[in-house]
Specification:
globular; 7-stranded mixed sheet; single chain; Rossmann fold
């Protein structure tokens, strides 16, 4: 198979786009698609001060490096869960990219604040590690945005991630989440930062190819707690469909975005944040909460630990 642009031997075939590229022209193709997505959906606006949620994986580190190539200055934020070698290696990869692109990263250490790693925090809360992790990450990422003046939080969620999440919401008709998976979410009363996902329409395979060809060193292992997750099952199901009908996942997500735009036009005042957004604020820290203390402060209270949310700054 030959590259569509130069006719040289192709290094990657994109069946969903009915094309193939050599390394050089794949990078151009991928970056142009991301730029088009950003422009089409207004993800990054003039005057924005963005920050990237980095994990050490291919998606977030590729996004961080790509933004730098586009001339968009963005710092990073990392939540260290204290998962042994996995967290240690992840942080090493993040610091290496920060050094390479000349940006700084704000680091929140779960063990330093909660005096235990995420596994132990989850046990005390009697919640799954992923649930405890999500609660803490949402809190600290919004906190750093507010305190440091970042008005836009960018994440590396890709097409496969979003299609699997949407598939699960449709499968169980989780209406409270069904229309909350937009490519971007506006800020809420100055407390919750605006969020956007520039890789929303890029497949996981495309992002991985971009990282490898670009020489971005990322952690290959998945989070230990992701094993057995329903989203993995959904990804496998959608992957099988994609194999027999290339482009299905992209059509699924584009169709969703089109329907969402129609809903917004017909109901412009409908809230598209979480169901608890704007209903109240934590009496301890002022963070948006459905009532009483927020999850972060309840966790500290249960562990009998004074309030703290300190960050390390690297770079």
């Amino acid at each position: 198979m030959k590259c569509r642009v130069c006719g040289e031997t192709a290094s990657i075939a994109l069946r969903s786009h009915k094309t193939a590229f050599c390394d050089t022209h794949f990078l151009i193709f991928f970056e142009k698609r991301v730029q088009t997505t950003i422009r089409r959906y207004g993800l990054i606006r003039a005057g924005d001060r963005p920050i990237v949620a980095v994990s050490g994986g291919k998606d977030s580190l590729s996004l961080w490096a790509l933004l730098q190539r586009m001339g968009i200055a963005a710092d990073g934020i990392y939540v260290n869960l204290g998962i042994g070698d996995y967290s240690r290696v992840s942080l090493e990869k993040i610091k290496a990219v920060a050094d390479a692109i000349g940006r700084k990263v704000h680091i929140f250490h779960v063990p330093a604040t909660f005096q235990r790693d995420i596994t132990e925090v989850a046990k005390v809360l009697r919640r799954a590690p992923c649930s405890a992790c999500g609660m803490i990450k949402r809190y600290v990422m919004n906190k750093i945005c507010i305190e440091k003046g970042y008005n836009l939080l960018l994440t590396g969620h890709n097409l496969d991630d979003e299609a699997a999440a949407l598939f699960g919401n449709v499968l169980y008709w989780k209406k409270e989440y069904l229309w909350k998976k937009d490519i971007s979410l506006e800020e809420d009363e100055g407390h919750l930062s605006r969020k956007a996902k520039p890789f929303f329409l890029c497949s996981e395979r495309e992002v991985a190819a971009y990282a490898i060809i670009s020489g971005i060193d990322y952690i290959y292992e998945e989070c230990p707690f992701s094993k057995g997750a329903k989203t993995i099952t959904y990804k496998n199901i959608l992957g099988s469909i994609e194999e027999s009908s290339p482009g299905t996942k992209l059509m699924f997500i584009k169709g969703y975005l089109k329907e969402l735009e129609e809903i917004k036009r017909s109901s412009p005042h409908e809230g598209f944040r979480g169901s608890n957004a704007g209903t109240g604020y934590c009496g301890a820290c002022g963070y948006p909460s459905g009532g009483g203390l927020c999850g972060y402060c309840r966790t500290l209270e249960k562990l009998e630990i004074p309030y703290s949310a300190e960050f390390e700054e690297y770079g």
